[in-house]
Design brief:
It is built from two helices and 16 strands. It has 271 residues and is mostly beta strands. The strands form three sheets. It has an eight-stranded antiparallel β-sheet. α1 crosses α2 (31-51).
Length: 271
Amino acid sequence: MAAVVPFVETCIYIGQAVGALIVGLVGGINDSDHAAERQFTQNMCDQLRAAYPSKNIMIVHPNYAATLSNVQSAHVECPITWPRTQGYTCLSFDAGAFQLQGDGGFENWCFNGNYTNNGNGSVTFRTIDVTPPPTPAVQLPPPPPPKSPSDPSDGVYLVNSLKNGRWTSGMAYYRQMRGNGGNNGQQPSVYIDIKTDGTVTWEGGVQQGVFPDGDRFSAWIGAAADVAKVATFHQVGWAANAYRPMNVYRDQWRVLYEIDGWQVYTVYYCT
């Protein structure tokens, strides 16, 4: 029987994965930061509802008053302007009354479940009935297991490649990552192009690629990650695929490997 993952650990795991998909922005709290926060709260709420279908879910930043039954709570951070974050409380519970004590909007709270929104920050939650429907006569086969559900030894290099004066950018997946991006001279398990008519700007936003198995990999890197004062092997962002979140580290500008006349330079690595 599989072990039950604690609510706090689940929230941190989902928060890191969702945070990796949030666009990095420059400056203080502004409308763009609020857009990232709104994206974060709604994604967190959807993911936690999927993980806990019998529970009501609340994601909230301001103060609140609540009387809730069988409540569990956790704290997560939403990445906004690198390296700043915005903190949120995640609540899982059966039923009760909730009163927001602050501004509304998805940048401040998001909730889902069996509820009545009374207005002015007041929400009444009721118990969720998760009685399964009758089993149909014909069952579809279960989906195949993920190829690498939680293997911490794999990872991705974010690379720029050069051949005869032509630059490209891509992602190189390795089933076995070595410490501090030490896969020098080794061919990747899988490589995909991200841009073939020049290099992408890795910093200050989300870069995504889809591997041949359909897995989408997303990496968010801080806007100032490439300045000289950022140390090599220092964490500069977040990343995630369908299986787990990862951290992004600044790498040395060096040739990772060569193939067919291409010199492949590593810029960042994710593990």
